[in-house]
Each structure stands twice: as C-alpha cells, then as structure tokens.
Amino acid sequence: MRPGERLMRVVTVGNPSCVRIAAFQDALERAGQPTSVVISYLDLIRERDALDRTMREGDCLRIESPGQEFEVERQLIALGANVDDEPGASRIGRDGALRLLFDRGRIWFPRQWFLGFRELLRDVDRRRAAWPGHVAMNSPSEIEAMFDKPRCHGLLVKRGVSCPPSLGRVRSYDELRQRMQETRIFRVFVKLAHGSSASGVVALAIGRQGVVAFTTAEVVREAGEVRLYNSRSIRRIEDGREVALLVDTLAREGVQVERWIPKASVDGSVFDLRVVVIGGRARQVVVRKGPGPMTNLHLRNRRDDPSRLRALMLESEWDAAMSEAERASSAFPSSLHVGVDLLIAPGYRHWAVLEVNAFGDLLHGVSDRGLSTHDAEIAELLGGWAA
Fold first, then answer.
1. For the chain, which residues make up each domain, given as ranges?
2. Distance in angstroms (rounded) separating the CA atoms of residues 114 and 96
3. How many CB atoms are closer than 10 A to CB 52?
4. CA dihedral 46, 38, 359, 307 (to 10 degrees)
5. Among residues 7, 56, 78, 219, which one has the fewest Cβ atoms lying within 10 Å of its Cβ?
C-alpha cells in the first residue's frame, strides 16, 4: 500500500471454499488491504439479517457467484418455492426442495432457482438503506437483471448495443419453428433464460436436410419423469423428435432465442472474447477458441492471448470492439465490473455482444498493465469509484 492510501473493509457474500473468494483475498493482500469478511450464502439464506449485523459505515459490499455449491442451490430452490410466478415452469415445494439429492450434471428447477436467488438479492437491496456510506461493487438489482437473459438483452438493445436479434418469447419447439419461419431466421441459439456457463444452450439449424442441433444439454426420461442434464461435452443431434423434446423442456423453464451469428476463426478454430470491463473501461481480455459453436472454457476449449487477433485487426476495429463491450457495461452503471462475451464476425470488422455476466471477472493468469481483474477492481475502489 502506498503512503496516503486508505484501508478498506470489504464484506463478501459468497461460498467460502470457492476459488473466487481465494482469488479476491489474494488480491486484497497484494494491495496491502485487510482480507474480506465473508458471509456465506447459506448463512445469509438462513439468517437474513446476517449482513445487517456485519456491515459498518463505509464498508464495501461484494457479491460473488452462488454456484458450485449444491447445498446453496438446494436452499435457493427452496427459497423460490413460494414466490408467485406465471404457470409453466417445473415447481417443487419447499420441503421437497430441501430433500433433493446431488445428481451430477442435473439441472434442477432453473426457473424456481432464479426466483429464489432474485428473492435473496431483493432482500439485500432493501436492507442497503440501513448501511450508511457503504459502496456496493455490484448492485443486487443489476445482478438480477444480468441473470435474466431476455431482460438483459432488452436493456442492451435500448442502449444501442449490437446484439444478435431476438426472436421474442418462445414457449415450445413448435412455436420456435413457426417463429423461425416467420422471421426467415433458420439458425438460432436457444438459451435457458437463467442459465450460465453454457448450461442448457442449444445451437439449432434448420435446412433442406432437416434439423441439426449442437448442445451440452440432454433430456433423460425415466419412470415417467423428464430430467434435464448438462455436461462438458457438446453433442450433435439430428433426430427431430429428440430436438423437439429438448427444446420443449428448456422452453417450459423460459428461454432466450437469438439469431446464430457465425464467429470468426483464427488458427483454424472459431472464437469469441471474454472482455472484463472495470469502472467502464475494457481491461482484461481472453480469446476463447474451440471447434464448435460454444466456446466456454469449461467445455475443454482453449484460451489464447488476444495479441494474435489484434494483429489481424486494424487498431480502429479493435478499439471499436472494445467500445462495444464498454457500451454494454453502461447498461449496468452500478456494477464496478462485468464480464462481456463478445462475438467477432468473419472478417474481423463486425461484432456483437452475446452475454453480460455479473460474475465474469474470474480470469486466472490474465492481466492488463500488469494487473489481474481483481487487482484492477481494488485499484478502482481505492481510487474512489462509487456507483
């Protein structure tokens, strides 16, 4: 810590054992700051006033991802059990939710999970008025918006951000086929409205030879029950009945459907970019390369330094692409950092924002001006950033 810099007390909501917490704690130590006080999601769900008892005047609140912890997933599903919602999505009672057993890859009640997470975020937002002088690194209401893909897409379009065109709300495979015919869009991405990390994503194309879909999702029918699973492998499906069952299952939980825009390639692999925008500026960038339509790194795809891509683009084109990521972040002005998934089209002269991620700042080993994502976030806070 340099002379004159202040000490900062951070309170983090997250899962204490996850790598996200450890990475941020390491960055605080590098900055000469006290390590963060951590409130676990489980404690916050069970004791809703946990933050009230912890937050002090002038504190900084950081909200981390609730993922990678099955007990938290189960509790959030239970929390959403009594939240009113329109009919259609699968539902389970609170007691049933608390009895759910871990089933690797199973996507449990994604709409109800979101309702529970939304309820928790809104409760935190309501309580913030009682914490004078605090700063929130990421606004609970904006986290909610980013976890709702149709709503997020609408916010981006209102800001003039270049995004793949949406086909609007779709409730079934038959309705999707009809909408594709009406719009003359025959290649689409179907995404769970509240999914993350390519969970429940289908890249679907319809042509003269029939239908073909690429997906990480799978529907399993067993003993009269329809189960939805996600994997780290991308499957190709050409059986129209299987595609219909998959899309129908996803659509019941709510989906965002967008035009499938081709991605540019480099070194024989298609790619897109994860751009971390901090304090309104595009900072750390990683190229995500793979053989298929989904380039998420957890799907065993490769990551690359953006220097090769920058050499293929004019400097003005690269700057314009980064400006597009920054424009996307401006839809969420009360969040210090967001992760923007940016598509570069063939020819490297056009781009589109695919996703904006509330928790998209975990990029191991990627720096900008010698700073990791967390280093840069802390520097912005110490420099006086406040929403």
1. 10-136, 173-259, 263-365
2. 17
3. 11
4. -160
5. 7
Q: Which two tokens stand for residue 191?
A: 């995404």
pLDDT (average), residues 258-274:
92
Whether the pLDDT of residue 370 is over 60: the answer is: yes
Q: How far apart are CA 349 and CA 284, in angstroms?
A: 21
Find the radius of gyration of the CA atoms of the chain: 21
- Top pLDDT among 210 and 11 is at 11
Q: Which of 137, 159, 109, 178 is nearest to 386 (CA)?
A: 137
Please, are residues 111 and 297 in contact by the beta-carbon 8 Å criterion?
no
- The answer to whether the CB of 373 falls within 8 A of the CB of 336 is no
Q: How many residues does this entry show for the chain?
A: 387
Structure tokens at 275: 């751009």
Q: What is the DSSP string of 86-133?
A: -BTB----HHHHHT----TTB---HHHHHHHHHHHHHHHHHHGGGSTT
| Cβ-based neighbours of 200, under 8 Å, separated by 6 or more | 107, 110, 191, 192, 216, 217, 228, 230, 250, 253
Tell me the C-alpha to C-alpha distance, in Å, between residue 161 and each of 145, 328, 384: 16, 6, 28
- Strand pairing report for 60-63 and 10-14: parallel
pLDDT in tens, 287-313: 999 877 777 766 666 788 899 899 999
- The answer to whether 332 and 139 are in contact (CB under 8 A) is yes
Provide mean pLDDT across the span 199-215: 91
Please state which architecture CATH assigns to domain 263-365. 2-Layer Sandwich (3.30)
Mean pLDDT (the chain, rounded): 93
Q: How far apart are CA 384 and CA 387, in angstroms?
A: 10
Mean pLDDT of 183-206: 92
Check whether 5 has a pLDDT greater than 70. no
Q: Which two tokens stand for residue 330?
A: 């401006």
CA distances for 13 relative to 59, 99, 205, 283, angstroms: 13, 25, 41, 24
- Classified as helix, coil or strand, 33 is coil
For residue 7, is pLDDT > 90?
A: no
CB 273 within 8 A of CB 363: no
Judging by DSSP bridges, how do beta strands 337-344 and 269-278 pair with one another?
antiparallel
- Res. 345 pLDDT band, cuts 50 70 90: very high
